[in-house]
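Q: I'm building a small set of examples for a reading group on sequence design. Run inverse folding on the following structure and report the sequence directly after it, with nothing in between.
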């Protein structure tokens, strides 16, 4: 969990919802709480499976609607739309992501040099009549685990053995 104690994060979430005129429903609170306890950047489907243990009648449609609503008020943010499922993050502080194009794993990275892109990005946006609300950089590639699996597969094939 990033960014303070869970109690502080939930209190901030409740205040943020109320300031936006958004009711703090048990569904919204449960979805936020589960999202805020992980740095794995789960998909809506993964959140649904987790939160249903607490709220068995929760529908996947409600999870999608809730995530979209919470993103609108700035309580959560979508991370990567790589592949069929988008991923979500309750950490809305300035940070960036490494996204594995093989397994979909998303890793948080804080890098001041990437944060410095905010000023030129805002200038570029302004030239196009666009108002910037924030920026995040996603760097796509293969994580160490996927590279290791690929390397093991190549060495197995080179020895004439069957790959995984």
């Amino acid at each position: 969990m990033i960014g303070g104690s869970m109690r502080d994060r939930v209190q901030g979430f409740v205040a943020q919802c109320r300031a936006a005129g958004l009711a703090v429903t048990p569904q919204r609170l449960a979805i936020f709480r589960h999202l805020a306890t992980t740095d794995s950047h789960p998909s809506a489907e993964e959140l649904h499976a987790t939160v249903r243990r607490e709220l068995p009648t929760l529908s996947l449609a409600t999870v999608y609607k809730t995530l979209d609503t919470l993103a609108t008020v700035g309580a959560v943010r979508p991370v990567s739309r790589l592949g069929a499922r988008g991923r979500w993050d309750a950490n809305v502080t300035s940070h960036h992501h490494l996204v594995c194009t093989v397994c979909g794993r998303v890793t948080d990275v804080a890098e001041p040099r990437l944060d410095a892109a905010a000023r030129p990005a805002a200038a570029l946006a302004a030239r196009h009549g666009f108002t910037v609300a924030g920026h995040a950089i996603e760097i796509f590639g293969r994580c160490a685990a996927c590279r290791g699996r690929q390397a093991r597969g190549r060495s197995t094939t080179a020895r004439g053995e069957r790959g995984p």
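The first helix runs from residue 6 to 19.
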